[in-house]
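Morning. Coffee machine broken again, so started the prediction first thing and wrote up yesterday's gels while waiting. Chain of 343 residues, entered below exactly as on the submission form.
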Amino acid sequence: MGLKLGENDEGLHPTGSASNWNESRYIDFWDRRQRIGGWFRIGNRPNEGHGEVSACLYLPDGSIAFWFERAAITANTLSSGGQTWEILEPWRRSRVRFQGEMMTLPDCWQLKDPKRAFTTAPRAPADIDLDVQTTGLDDVMGSDQDHIDRIFVPGQADCHYQHLCRVRGTVRLGDRTWTVDGPGGKDHSWGPRNWHAKIYLRWIICAFDDANGFMIVRAVGPTKQTRGGFELLVLVDGWNTPALLTLPPTSITIFDAYASARSRKPGQAYFTARTKFELLSDKNRDGTKFYKIKLSYVEGLTPSEIATVMALRAQFAELVRTMNITSDDYAVVPPEPNSDVPF
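Came back before lunch.
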């Protein structure tokens, strides 16, 4: 038996020391009678100074309304960027509100080009107020955190749970208003969030009525393994071919923090920069030594170098995704005398 969740776990948790520490909350719903649904999420990253705020509506005419922003925050709270959560009764009832602009798109596939969508799509004011009811801790998947490996791949969070819910409330978008009532799903995670820990997530929520339903999750890691590290294709100065670098779990969050920091600067993604890799030794709480990477920005690549990188990414992407990580990738080589480096 692992960590058993308690009444306070519906609320906020102490912020961890990892730069990419995250506490996120999500709900969705579908009103079958009116053919309207939606989902809402906040993911606060207080150590990075922003919260990820998402709001999406699927409208009766087949169009959607969508919003996303990285809202500035100074602390981990239940509110970020126009979205606010209230825990009215732990494991039984919450209130979720969103007030702000949303893009209106006739076709959800327009979001395949998010820059263009955010630049050109018309917008409408939204005011959404939802009452979210659930049936108690006993019906929560993840009430015993020994179950987390059935839900998440390593690197997504330290703790996570999810359960079915009933959502009722009011959706106002521009001059249109709906009173909604439908089933859905709800989840909550906290801990370091590594968006590169998976290449895709498939999540199906099915509710027959308020007492019967199921949730199916399929999360696939970068190497189609759910409990290993992941591999990077690295272009080394002076080499004619790329190198394949396997990152162990101790370095995944470090890479994610570096990549996230680069992505927040327009036109400066991690794969458009020259990066210095170092190997450092550290010890866990038991005093056992382990090794982790340190990544440092050196300089941006030239346009021709970026073109080369993009071509190699396209050429090798499928190979990297389908390669399995084996024990050989973590072979331990005795270090040289008086050396802290294991190779």
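Residues 223-228, 325-343 have pLDDT under 50 and may be disordered. Going to sketch it on the whiteboard this afternoon.
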